[in-house]
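Workshop exercise sheet. Pairs work together: one partner reads the sequence aloud, the other fills in the structure field after running the prediction. Swap roles for the next sheet.
Pair: D.N. / O.F.
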Amino acid sequence: MSAELTAGFGQVVLVLQGGGALGAYQAGVYQALHEAGIEPDWVIGTSIGAINASLIAGNAPEDRVERLRSFWQRIGYSQPANLIAACPGGGKMARLLTMMQGLGAFFVPNSAVMFGDFWPLAAEEAGLYSTAPLRQTLAELIDFDWLNRRRPRISVGAANVGTAQMHYFDSREITFRIEHVLASGALPPAFPPVRVDGELYWDGGILSNTPLEAIFDDNPRRDSLIFSVHVWNPDGAEPHSIAEVLNRQKDVQYASRSRSHVARQKQIHKLRHVIAELARRLPAAERASPEIRELAGYGCLTRMHVVALLAPSLPDEDYAKDLDFSAGSISARWDAGYAQAAHALEAAPWTAQADPLEGVVLHRFAA
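Structure field:
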């Protein structure tokens, strides 16, 4: 099955957004791909997407689903918080308890902030919480020797605190360390920045939460089947309360202009195909001239099929949905990701004939 679905593509790419607890949806998507025999050649992530990406890239294929499941079980609510969350209207109280106590395998309160907003802290400690537990959890679940074999390649996005520039740590260019993953998930002000090679980095989601540009800007470009997993929905109803405003604001912000990015890349890649076709139609003598060869070099015939998987909303979720690490919500999101990806694989629209002038073809699967 997998050979038929991926035939003709130079690489399969899995792109994972940031989104806290919503990232359980991504784990379900990967499980469906794995069971269909499709393993990504390249995984790109930001924030929780970078963590899921590292769990995939940092383990042998046969261990990946189990390691993902172990991670999501470990970072879930404590038993008291789970019991509270299961009660009608208990979600807010469970989140409050978690904000006070932290999540044992993920983050714990930073006691230094009790002295006030202006109390001086070391730069690497300037956050409301410490992510030391996350470092330990990832160290136990990720095999960095395997990860640095680049099977698959991994890239994670982080925001340089000093320059406000997006940076991708890429296993094709560096030896990956746990600091690279932690930097991509260091969302301020909750989590402190992470220093990598002398530079401080925050969560890449504050600059680009849907890291598709890493593929479009890659050199050399390759024919690609891209599974872009969206945990924030770009489509939504008009809000009619402050709670709905806050919920919609997060979706709009963290959807990260993904739709406009893809539309722009469709235009750019179509122009590259047009240039290549025009150059092909020139007489051989014209094509051989240095000037024409230089101009023709702007053409490119690579084709990228982007399969956008949009996570559904859960009943009764609100603007704090990305903080809902209850066992029930994690399970529901995981199952939704699995079902959505299985549906996309069954439909497989990328196997149909595409317009030869189109360099980027979008296939959208929404709940």
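Discussion prompt: The mean pLDDT is 94. What would you look at next?
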